[in-house]
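Researcher: Here's the sequence for the chain we discussed earlier.
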Amino acid sequence: MEQLFSKGEIMADGGVSEMIMLVASLLVAGIVSGVLVGSYANIVDGMEGTASQSEVNSKTSSGLVSDPMNIDWNTVTNQTTVSIQNTGILTLDIDETSMILNSSVMNVTKSGGPTEWVSGTVISFTVSGNVSFSNNQEVTLIVIVNTETKSPATGVHSFTEVVRIV
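Model: Thanks. This is the structure I predict for it:
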């Protein structure tokens, strides 16, 4: 039988197919690494956003100044006054304050006093709603405050107190 290819021709032919496989592998690796780098950048951006939100939240705080065992509920007007102090570092948004009293969302309006809610400042709020309470009833008060600054994120703080309606 006659030899169709010499040894050199077979090696050359095998080298070309190996070269094609190498180039194809490098192209696939390049595409995959590009996708991975893009995904990593998205993860880092997400983590930075979470860090900013956590940092702003950690600087946002408030507390009840009113006597929790003596919340005077006016049964004629269905309202009371509650005083809240900004105990955080950031300025709070007075108009973004919310309160829930005994599972009812209340109407909350500032009742006089300072116009800016900086750290250490106490703001009195008129809290009203279509609810009724009995004398010496203990209920849950939830207060939610937000920061005035919205960049890089809005800070949010909430606290819960058991209060006695008198």
